[in-house]
Specification:
Strand order of the largest sheet of chain A: 6-7-8-3-9-10
Shape of chain B: globular
Number of strands of chain A: 10
CATH topology of the largest domain in chain A: Rossmann fold
Strand content of chain B: under 5%
Oligomer: heterodimer
Helix content of chain B: over 70%
Number of strands of chain B: 2
Largest sheet of chain B: 2 strands, antiparallel
Structural class of chain A: alpha/beta
Chain lengths: ~260, ~300
């Protein structure tokens, strides 16, 4: 499968990112790059700053130091909806779906930015907005097929099992047809079977749509199978970066995960 | 029979007025999950602005229309200011913080409005006919006496509800609004601009407050106590459900009709005064039996 994919140029470059909350340093001078079409994993023990890193990329947090360069433009501060506009979609560690809405509606919100009739003109151009809606429905149905969630299309998300909710969240992110997809622990709390499904979906997304993926995961075997390159964080610092096999053999990484003998 | 219908209609009409205020609450609750304590103050502020601008513009060709346009502008500016100064710094904060903030907005608006526009009782005459008319003369002996201003109010409320219903159910903004209400962070991550949505929804709530202010103000006069009609909206919301536009209407009608009927038919048995507490007792019962209200969304939480 990997032979099919062409890993391209640098899509996202983080340079010397530091982030503090009060006295706590969540991230300390972290630099790495993500190439287009690759699957890049971020691993590290709890509290290593993985989610903070994702939040910096998607504009929820503004780094105290350092720059983020995305598609060649180094950006100053940016808000999450602007990140979305530039083709960055994400899922959350603690599922953040719109619980009262159906699966279908949830996924439709993912297309917010693809809809041409603007918010204000919506009220005026009723006909146009409706035609567009149908068009978007088609795209969304395709994603629903792809992730095999046809049977729950009309179910309110709050009623679904955890694993399925994760899948719906992925569907919503995909609906935006993102160039860069950020997945925050997509397999947390899943059983083996669900994990395998999710792995397959992630690989398929990467393969079929060419989406670049940055993924945080705890399950090492998953990370080793999925990713092209791995970044290892510990206490907010980068302690390893490279191909899965290299990282696995790295002494600093082993120490961080297993502890050091004193 | 004629008397019963008269009481019922009177109650329903009062209910329409409650609904008008309750609508403003529902709008903001739907869009941000926040109970906007300032809705009552917004009703007062809008009505005060309108009535005083009409006085200032007395010599122009149409003081009402000019003042109305200006007041709409003021309400939009107010929504923008609230978003900028209050809501934006509170993104991703728990609902209770936002609720407390609206409490603050309510006091600021009360004080500011009266400091700028004065705190007397102002008569508001926008040309709503006040003469009662007689209906159903052929059906009921003597007919049914209905104040025509109430009919106008009902018509206005009907149009408003239909318009808002379309706006929320049939447009994409409706979905965006529900999304924002559910989860700020997730809404932002799919590219819904939170700030924009909030300005829109507070503007709409401000305009609903203006309509409520006009209708109530021309009935009671524009005065401080106008802000207190919000208290009557509370039981209406509990009955109808906080998220439902339809609920606000039906709840208002039930409360309005219920309190008038119980006052007239049960009042003599207990010495009267039922009208003042009827709504709250109904609300209390509903909280015990069906806390999400008649049309509210039942909240499903997996533990």
């Amino acid at each position: 499968m990997t032979s099919q994919r062409r890993i391209g140029d640098v899509l996202l470059q983080l340079d010397g990112i530091s982030l503090s909350f009060g006295g706590v340093r969540a991230l300390d001078n972290v630099s790495f790059d993500v190439r287009s079409h690759e699957i890049r994993a971020v691993i590290g023990p709890n509290g290593a700053g993985k989610s903070s890193l994702l939040n910096v990329i998607n504009g929820v947090y503004h780094p105290t130091q350092g720059t983020v360069t995305y598609k060649g433009t180094t950006r100053p501060q940016m808000r999450p909806h602007e990140a979305a506009r530039q083709g960055i979609a994400r899922t959350f560690q603690n599922i953040a779906l719109f619980k009262g809405m159906t699966v279908l509606d949830n996924i439709m919100t993912g297309r917010t930015l693809k809809m041409q009739a603007g918010f204000l003109f919506q009220c005026v151009y009723f006909g146009k907005a409706r035609g567009e809606e149908l068009e978007h429905r088609e795209k969304v149905e395709h994603i629903i097929d792809f992730l095999q969630i046809e049977h729950i299309r009309k179910t309110p998300v709050g009623r679904l099992a955890y694993g399925l909710q994760k899948r719906v969240e992925l569907a919503r992110a995909l609906a935006a047809e993102p160039e860069l997809l950020l997945l925050d622990e997509p397999m947390a709390g899943m059983n083996v079977e669900e994990k395998e499904d999710m792995c397959r979906f992630i690989l398929d997304v990467n393969d079929e749509y060419g989406t670049t993926i940055v993924l945080i995961e705890h399950d090492m075997s998953v990370v080793m199978d999925l990713s092209d390159r791995v970044v290892v964080l510990d206490y907010g610092r980068k302690i390893g970066d490279g191909k899965p096999d290299e990282v696995r053999a790295d002494q600093a990484v082993i120490d961080a995960y297993l502890g050091v003998q004193h | 029979m004629g008397f019963f219908i008269e009481v019922l209609l009177g109650g329903l009409m009062a209910g329409v007025l409650y609904s008008l205020v309750a609508l403003g609450f529902v709008l903001i609750f739907k869009a941000s999950g926040v109970f906007n304590f300032a809705q009552g103050a917004m009703v007062l502020f809008a009505a005060l602005t309108l009535v005083r601008l009409m006085e200032l513009l007395k010599s122009t060709f149409s003081p009402f229309l000019l003042a109305l346009v200006l007041t709409v502008g003021v309400m939009i500016a107010l929504a923008w200011l609230i978003e900028r100064l209050v809501l934006r710094p509170l993104v991703n904060q728990p609902g209770i913080s936002l609720f407390m903030a609206t409490l603050g907005i309510s006091y600021v608006l009360d004080g500011f409005g009266q400091a700028v526009w004065g705190s007397d009782v102002y008569m508001l005459d926008v040309g709503i006919p006040k003469r009662p008319i007689v209906l159903f003369e052929s059906l009921v002996p003597g007919g049914v006496l209905v104040p025509s201003e109430d009919l106008v109010a009902a018509a206005i409320a009907g149009v408003l509800v239909a318009g808002l219903g379309l706006f929320f159910q049939k447009t994409r903004i409706g979905r965006a609004l529900r999304a924002v209400a559910d989860d700020h962070q997730a809404a932002q991550s799919v590219g819904i601009p939170l700030n924009y949505i909030w300005v829109i929804v507070w503007t709409v709530a401000g305009l609903v407050a203006l309509v409520a202010g006009i209708v109530w103000g021309s009935k009671l006069g524009v005065q401080f106590s106008l802000g207190l009609v919000a208290l009557k909206a509370l039981p209406v919301l509990i009955l109808g459900g906080f998220e439902s536009i339809l609920g606000a209407v039906v709840g208002g009608l039930i409360i309005g009709a219920g309190e008038k009927l119980s006052e007239v038919y049960l009042g003599p048995l207990v010495g009267g005064g039922i009208e003042n507490w009827f709504a709250y007792v109904v609300a209390l019962l509903f909280l015990l039996i069906r806390p999400e209200g008649l049309f509210g969304e039942r909240h499903i939480d997996r533990v």
